[in-house]
Amino acid sequence: MNHNQPPINLAPGVIAIARRVKPGSETAFEEATKGVILAASTFPGYLGSDVLYPSSKRGEWQLILRFDTPEHLQEWETSPICQGWIARADALTVNEARVTRVNSLEAWFTLPEIPNAVPPPKWKTAIVSAVGIYPVSYFMPGVLRPIIGGLPLWLATLINISITMPLMTWVIMPQVTRLFKGWLYPSQ
Q1: pLDDT tens per residue, range 27-55
Q2: Domain coordinates of the chain in residue numbers?
Q3: In this predicted model, what pLDDT tens digit does every residue of 49-66 receive, in sequence order?
Q4: 45 phi, psi to nearest 5 deg
Q5: What are phi and psi of 108, to 5 degrees?
């Protein structure tokens, strides 16, 4: 074993970018957002993205990009391709981008209607995550049993996770976070 090698970074690289779009530029901004996602998806370590649309016309759009390591995220951010997309977005927005580096599951607790909010304490996010995960983990095996019942355990688990994580990220947690918004963000 070579002890001179740097440790492998297993933490994901996640960035949330919030912007207010110029009135009348919403369609062009949405197309630019799709372009950013498509371009980012060609970079090493890209894991996925989310777009959080504003709750009102004057609200902020948020783009969340996830990479497998902070180093891969930095590779994307410093690329000429990313810089070109930033310039395009600058022309369509009224404010400078508000950029937040997100750790672990904090992206589940980002709400576009509460810009610049300090992330809730980890103990609160753990409780709210459990509220969202419990029904999914309780019902999902029964729902999937007819499909994955005869498969090897490793493959059944992989299929379960492949369905559960997108469901949690895009359906369950945005709703649960909004449901507990007053408790997670009491000063807002």
Answers
A1: 999 999 999 999 999 999 898 888 888 87
A2: 13-108, 122-184
A3: 888 888 776 778 888 888
A4: 85, 0
A5: -65, -20
Predicted TM-score of the model (pTM) = 0.54
DSSP H or E run through 62: strand 60-67
> What string of DSSP letters covers 20-31?
EBPTT-HHHHHH
The amino acid occupying position 28 is A
Q: What is the 3-state secondary structure (H, E, C) of 99-154?
A: EEEECHHHHHHCCCCCCCCCCCCHHHHHHHHHHHHHHHHHHHHHHHHHHHCCCCHH
Distance CA 19, CA 52 (A): 11
What's the CATH fold of domain 13-108?
A: Alpha-Beta Plaits (3.30.70)
Distance of alpha carbon 78 from its chain centroid, rounded? 20
Better pLDDT: 122 or 127: 127
Q: How long a stretch of residues is the chain?
A: 188
